[in-house]
Amino acid sequence: MSRRVGLPGASELFRPTSVPDVVPPAPAPPQATTDQSPTPQGSGRVRHDEKITVYVSSDELLALEQARLTLRAQHGVAVDRGRIVRTAIGLAVADLVARGGDSDLVRGLGAS
User: Tens of pLDDT along 76-108?
Assistant: First the structure.
C-alpha cells in the first residue's frame, strides 16, 4: 500500500469556478462637432483586450504616483495608475480632435 498522497493537477486547481460576466465593449470615443466639445473620458473599469508597454522615467513614475495619491487624498477619487493614463489619453485625443494644431498634444510633442 502506497503512502503517497494524490494531489490535484493544474487543470483542477485553475479551472473556472463561475460563469464569467459579459463585459460590454468600451464606448466609442466622442466625435467632435463645431457647436459642442467632446466629453473626454477614459474607458474606466472594464476588461481591456489590448495592451501596450510604456517606458517612463523615474521622475514621471513618481509624478504619476503622486497624482494618484492626490486624487485619493484631496478629491476622494481612488483609481489606479492605468486608469489615470487611459483618462489622460482620452483627454489628449479629444483635445487634438477639437483643437487640431492648437492642441496641447501637438504643442507638447512639437517641443520635444
Answer: 999 999 999 999 999 999 999 999 999 999 999
Three-state secondary structure readout of 65-87: HHHHHHHHHHHCCCCCHHHHHHH
Contacts 24+ apart (CB under 8 A), 65-74: none
Q: How far apart are CA 55 and CA 52, in angstroms?
A: 10
Q: Which cell numbers hold the place of 96?
A: 487634438
Does this model's pTM top 0.70? Answer: no
Contact 93, 29 (CB under 8 A): yes
Q: Which candidate, 109, 74, 103, 108, places its Cα nearest to that of 91?
A: 103
